Amino acid sequence: QKEVEQNSGPLSVPEGAIASLNCTYSDRGSQSFFWYRQYSGKSPELIMFIYSNGDKEDGRFTAQLNKASQYVSLLIRDSQPSDSATYLCAVDQNFGNEKLTFGTGTRLTIIP
Amino acid sequence: GAGVSQSPSNKVTEKGKDVELRCDPISGHTALYWYRQRLGQGLEFLIYFQGNSAPDKSGLPSDRFSAERTGESVSTLTIQRTQQEDSAVYLCASSLLPGDFSPLHFGNGTRLTVT
Fold first, then answer.
1. Using the beta-carbon criterion (under 8 Å), do B107 and A43 form an inter-chain contact?
2. Residues B54-99 pLDDT 10s
3. What residue of B is the nearest CA neighbor of A47?
4. How far apart are CA B22 and CA B9, in angstroms?
5. Cα torsion at A91, A45, B112, A102 (round to 10°)?
6. Most buried of the four, A19, A60, A88, B22, by CB within 10 Å?
7. Helices (H) and strands (E) in chain B — how many of each?
8. Are A37 and A96 in contact (CB under 8 A)?
9. By the 8 A CB rule, do A25 and A91 touch?
10. Does the beta-carbon distance from A104 to B42 stay under 8 Å?
11. What contacts A37, CB < 8 A, 6 or more positions away?
12. C-alpha to C-alpha distance for B114 and B85, rounded to whole angstroms
């Protein structure tokens, strides 16, 4: 069974610090990796995706992928209270997002 | 513009009854997806549509579950003879194109409770 594992948290980070969220996946053949943010009681929204080994930066967010270690992470720089949410890691076997396998999410709290 | 709309937002039903959940995707989005989110668990893929066709139905939990899409627009997810384990939030999403990285836009979900 294909699995995506995340630490459920809660992860507490002081405002202005870097938040580091981690995810591991079991299917070595996975091709595409996504980070979604889900505020309490709301639906998930895409933050960013990555499919090549290395780092991908978008504003305050950086996704890091290491396929050899089957590991993907999300760094949030200059954390803001509005970043407090559950962050979902999702993986697709193929190049794209037709059929995502989601982790259970990490709950992040930014402390003012 | 309008986002993905799902109805009803909440549904309470008795075990054994049939339920129908509706999703109206963003206009022009060719791909439509159904996911399920049980309490404390990750989103679980159910099915996706490319136009009106469903290339992958592998996520449907049992033959009690079925889905259809018409006019490359509205989709309905039907659960027959509901069971308590069907209780979950059912999320619909749409994207501009399938098989690429265009973002999935999720609706607010239908919270189904089977008593």
1. yes
2. 988 889 999 999 999 999 999 999 999 999 999 999 999 999 887 7
3. B103
4. 10
5. 10
6. A88
7. 0, 11
8. no
9. yes
10. yes
11. A44, A45, A47, A85, A86, A87, A88
12. 8
How many residues comprise chain B?
A: 115
Residue at B29: amino acid letter? H
Q: Position B76: which residue type?
A: T
The DSSP line for A8-25 is ---EEEETTS-EEEEEEE
Task: Check B101 against A49: CB less than 8 A apart.
Answer: yes
The residue behind tokens 């995340």 is A6
Going residue by residue through chain A (112 aa), what tens digit of pLDDT does each one get? 669 999 988 999 999 999 999 999 999 999 999 999 999 989 999 999 999 999 999 999 999 999 999 999 999 999 999 999 999 999 998 888 888 999 999 999 999 9
| A90, A96, A104 member nearest B41 (Cβ) | A104
Look up residue A69 and give its amino acid.
Answer: S
Omega prior to B98 cis, within 30 of 0: no
Tokens in use for B115?
A: 């008593």
Q: For residue B45, which of A101, A16, A62 has the smallest C-alpha distance?
A: A101
What is the spatial distance between Cα B114 and Cα A15, in angstroms, rounded to a whole number? Answer: 41
User: Residue for token digits 């270690």?
Assistant: A69
Q: Token digits for A85?
A: 């949410």
Q: Which two tokens stand for residue B78?
A: 């039907």
Contact A63, A72 (CB under 8 A): yes
Q: Is A43–B106 a contact, with Cβ atoms under 8 angstroms apart? A: yes
